[in-house]
Amino acid sequence: MGLKSNVALLLLQIVLYRQQELLHMDKTLDNDQLLADPVLDEMILSKFANHRLVRMYAPELSGIQLRTLKGIVRELFEQGLPDDDVPVTVVTLANHFYYTRVQELEREQIPELKAKVQELQNEREQERT
Predict the structure, then answer these.
(1) Cα 101 to Cα 63: distance, rounded to the nearest angstrom
(2) Proportion of the chain above pLDDT 70, given as a percent
(3) DSSP secondary-structure letter at 88?
(4) Which of 21, 23, 34, 56 holds its CA 20 to 30 A away from the CA of 42?
(5) Using one digit for the tens of pLDDT, what is the confidence trace for 86-98?
(6) Is 79 in a helix, a strand, or coil?
(7) Hey, what's the torsion of the CAs at 82, 84, 90, 93, to 10 degrees?
(8) What is the model's pTM?
(9) Calpha distance 102→116 (Å, rounded)
């Protein structure tokens, strides 16, 4: 399942936040282990599936089950990173998707918005004359 970068980033942020919560609740857990093999639970599922960004950009994921969510996260880890020398963790994946999202915004969406704004300004100027 090819997630959009903004949806993947959101999921990884929710997962990371939950791992930090679990670490604070149980000091016996290993941070490195949780980042490499995160615990995925109903809390993550609920936050992700009910998030407004998911409803907007990936509505098909709004009603997913925990098993499906685990599969999505597993796929993200299996896809890995462009640099094989970097270990795949929740943090490195989130950094990758953050960078990807910034690139998308800079290359595609910001220029599109600028063009639309310019078009609207031109229309308004024509209406005034």
Answers:
(1) 24
(2) 99
(3) -
(4) 56
(5) 999 999 999 999 9
(6) helix
(7) -10
(8) 0.86
(9) 20
* Amino acid at the residue 49: A
Which residues, including other chains, have CB under 8 Å from residue 77's CB and lie 6 or more apart? Answer: 88, 93
CA gap 74, 102 in Å, rounded: 24
Residue for token digits 């990807």? 100
User: What is the domain partition of the chain in residue ranges?
Assistant: 5-128
What distance in Å separates the CA atoms of residue 99 and residue 119, rounded to the nearest whole number?
29
Tokens read off for 123: 């229309």
Name the token pair of 38.
Answer: 């995160």
Residue type, 62: S
Distances (CA, A) of 35 to 17, 31, 85: 11, 6, 17
Rounded to whole angstroms, how far apart are CA atoms 23 and 41?
14
- Asked whether the predicted pLDDT for residue 1 surpasses 80, the reply is no
